[in-house]
Amino acid sequence: EVQLVDSGGGVVRPGGSLRLSCAASGFTFDDYGMTWVRQAPGKGLEWVSGINWNGGSIGYADSVKGRFTISRDNAKNSLFLQMNSLRAEDTALYYCARVNDPFSYSRYFDYWGQGTPVTVSS
Amino acid sequence: QSVLTQPPSVSAAPGQKVTISCSGSTSNIANNYVYWYQQVPGTAPRLVIYDNNKRPSGIPDRFSGSKSGTSATLGITGLQTGDEADYYCGTWDSSLSAVVFGGGTKLTVL
């Protein structure tokens, strides 16, 4: 059974940093791209970042470019999102999701984690 | 404001049919696959349509998808109360080099 478990969320002050993790199981991790999607309270889905199977292709939404860094450790079946210079508008539930394509992050997201909440507040 | 435009809400009675539209442009829908996700409040999104009109295993054939030009449509027939959820369209935008979503449509089964 495919499982994605998000963790690492919390409360942080503006300007602070946080590192999210996503532990994958039930499938061959390096056969798939991975992605992060967030959802602000009461709002819709917003794509944040994506990475292909080996980290050779990476993309970011303009809203996080230069502040967030996506990475993966295929030996540990894990996906990460390093978030720096956090702002109030980054407050959201952050989901990791599997991309149904090893070579890109632009295809559909076929499995999702349960989400981890991030609150940026002073 | 979302790159893809969806109606905020739609409603229909149990057993009836509903369609949800998703409008985009030549940089996204017209030249890329469209996907649809269902999100029951308090839960993670679930893929219901991929590659414009294909259903993942486990999704009933009451769900269908279509695309024409810069627009796409999700159809649901034989509505059930369990179909009440928010529905999002998504695709790749070649100009933005980003995945984009619609603002979401809340489906109410009256």
Detailed description of the structure:
- The complex is a heterodimer of chains A (122) and B (110).
- By secondary structure, chain A is mostly beta strands.
- Chain A has no helices and eleven strands.
- In chain A, the strands form two sheets. In chain A, strands 2, 4, 5, 6, 9, 10 and 11 form a seven-stranded mixed beta sheet that branches.
- Chain A is globular, with a radius of gyration of 13 Å.
- The model of chain A has no long low-confidence stretch (mean pLDDT 97).
- Chain B is built from no helices and nine strands.
- The mean pLDDT of chain B is 97.
- Chain B starts with 8 loop residues before the first strand and ends with a strand.
- The radius of gyration of chain B is 13 Å and the shape is globular.
- In chain B, the strands form two sheets. In chain B, strands 1, 3, 4, 7, 8 and 9 form a six-stranded mixed beta sheet that branches.
- Chain B is mostly beta strands.
- Helices cover 0% and strands 45% of the residues of chain B.
- The chains are: A mainly beta (122), B mainly beta (110).
- Chains A and B meet through strand 5 and strand 10 of A and strand 3, strand 7 and strand 8 of B.
